[in-house]
Design goal:
The protein contains twelve helices and twelve strands. By secondary structure, it is of the alpha/beta class. The protein is globular and about 60 Å long. Keywords: Signal.
Length: 370
C-alpha cells in the first residue's frame, strides 16, 4: 500500500473511532456536535462535485481551524446566490454568470476567493464522443443534426460549447442540446442517444481511462484558453459582516488547498475520486488559481460569453467584476483590489501579505481600516 493509501486508511480508522465515541452522545440527543469557539459556515455539499472545501477536509486543514464547514446537503434548483441572500447557506461556489444575475437581482453576497483555471492537460471541461465517431475537433460540422448532452443550461457546460461551435462555423440552431444528469451522459453516448457529451473532472479522467468506449474530441481550453471558467467562492454579506476574521481564515485555507492540489495533481485527483465516489485511479482534478486570488480578466469573460450565446439580464451590462468580487479577505493579497489577470499571480506564496481584513466597498465591516 502506498504512503498516501496508508494515510487515507489511518484517517478512515480515526474517523470511525471518533464516530463510535460520539455515537452515544448523538443518540442521547445531547450536544450539537459543534465545537465551542469555532465559527461554522453552511456549505451546500453536492456529492459528485469537486470542492476545495472537501479536499481541505481530507487534508485535515479544518481540524484545528477557527472556521469549519457545516455541510447542508446538495444545492437545489434555487441558485446558490439566492440561498445566500435568504440566509439558508453561508458560502457557496458556482459559475460567475449566476453571480452576475444575482447581483442584478439585488442579492447581497460577495465573491471572496477564486477557483479553477484551465490548462491543456487539466481542463475545466472536456468533450467526449463515442469511440469511432466522425465528430472531431477538425470536423465539428458533423454535429449539425446531432445531440449534445449537457447537465444544465445557461452555465459553463452550455455556453462554452455553443460559443466554440459558433466560432468554428457550426450552425448552433441545428444542434440539439439535451439536459441530463452528469452521470447519465456517458451511458447515453454509449447507447447512441447522445453524440457528444460535456464533462467536468472527475468524470473526465474516468472517460479518458476507457479509450475503447470514448474519445476526447476537444476541451474548454480550446475555447477560452488559460483563463478558465471561474466559479469563485461567494459568501453572504450577512455572514461576512458577522465573521470577517473567520472569512479571512476560510480564504487562507482555500488558498493553501488550491496550492497543494496544483503541486500534487495525482494525489489531489485521488482525493477528488474519493470525495465524489468515482474510482480514484481513474479520476482527474482541476487546476486552481494560485493563492485563491481573484482577477478581473477571468471574471470579465463571463459578460462576453453570455452576451455572445446566452441571455444577459437587463442591467448586467452596467456591472463589472469589482462590483461583485474582492480580495479583501485573502491573507495573500496586498490590497483588496482584484488582480488585472492571473498573469500577475504565478508565484506560490507561503507567507501572508497582510495582517487583517482589508477595506472593501462591497461589505460594510465595522472597525476595518483603509
Amino acid at each position: 500500500m502506498s504512503v498516501f493509501g496508508r494515510l487515507r486508511l489511518i484517517k478512515k480508522l480515526s474517523a470511525l473511532s471518533a464516530l463510535l465515541v460520539a455515537a452515544p452522545v448523538l443518540l442521547a440527543g445531547c450536544g450539537s456536535g459543534k465545537e465551542e469557539g469555532v465559527v461554522y459556515f453552511r456549505f451546500a455539499n453536492s456529492p459528485t462535485a469537486l470542492s476545495l472545501v472537501r479536499i481541505a477536509e481530507e487534508l485535515g486543514y479544518w481540524d484545528n481551524a477557527g472556521v469549519r464547514p457545516e455541510y447542508v446537503g446538495p444545492a437545489t434548483a434555487v441558485p446558490a446566490v439566492q440561498l445566500l441572500d435568504q440566509g439558508k447557506i453561508d458560502i457557496a461556489t458556482g459559475m460567475f454568470n449566476n453571480d452576475i444575475d444575482g447581483k442584478v437581482k439585488g442579492f447581497k453576497f460577495t465573491a471572496i476567493a477564486s477557483s479553477m483555471l484551465d490548462l491543456p492537460k487539466e481542463p475545466h471541461m472536456a468533450y467526449f464522443t463515442k469511440a469511432g465517431s466522425n465528430i472531431t475537433k477538425d470536423n465539428l460540422k458533423a454535429l449539425e443534426g446531432k445531440t449534445v448532452g449537457v447537465n444544465g443550461f445557461n452555465s459553463c457546460v452550455d455556453l462554452v460549447i455553443k460559443r466554440y461551435l459558433k466560432n468554428n462555423g457550426v450552425d448552433v440552431a441545428r444542434v440539439n442540446f439535451l439536459e441530463l444528469k452528469p452521470e447519465l451522459i456517458a451511458p447515453a453516448i454509449e447507447r447512441g442517444e447522445v453524440d457528444l457529451g460535456v464533462f467536468h473532472p472527475p468524470l473526465v479522467g474516468v472517460l479518458l481511462s476507457k479509450p475503447d468506449k470514448f474519445t476526447q474530441a476537444f476541451t474548454s481550453y480550446d475555447d477560452w484558453g488559460p483563463l478558465g471558467g471561474q466559479a469563485p467562492y461567494v459568501a453572504s454579506n450577512a455572514w461576512l459582516q458577522k465573521n470577517p476574521q473567520a472569512a479571512r481564515e476560510f480564504v487562507g485555507i482555500i488558498a493553501k488547498t488550491a496550492n497543494w492540489a496544483n503541486a500534487h495533481p495525482k494525489e489531489s485527483a485521488e482525493i477528488a475520486g474519493k470525495t465524489t465516489g468515482y474510482p480514484v485511479e481513474q479520476t482527474t482534478n482541476w487546476h486552481y488559481a494560485p493563492n485563491a486570488l481573484l482577477d478581473k480578466a477571468s471574471l470579465q469573460l463571463w459578460w462576453d460569453l453570455v452576451e455572445e450565446v446566452g441571455t444577459p439580464l437587463p442591467g448586467s451590462e452596467h456591472l463589472k467584476p469589482e462590483d461583485i468580487a474582492t480580495n479583501a479577505f485573502n491573507p495573500y493579497a496586498k490590497t483588496a483590489d482584484l488582480l488585472e489577470t492571473q498573469d500577475h499571480n504565478t508565484v506560490i506564496l507561503d507567507q501572508e501579505q497582510n495582517d487583517r481584513v482589508l477595506k472593501t466597498k462591497l461589505v460594510d465591516i465595522q472597525g476595518v481600516e483603509e
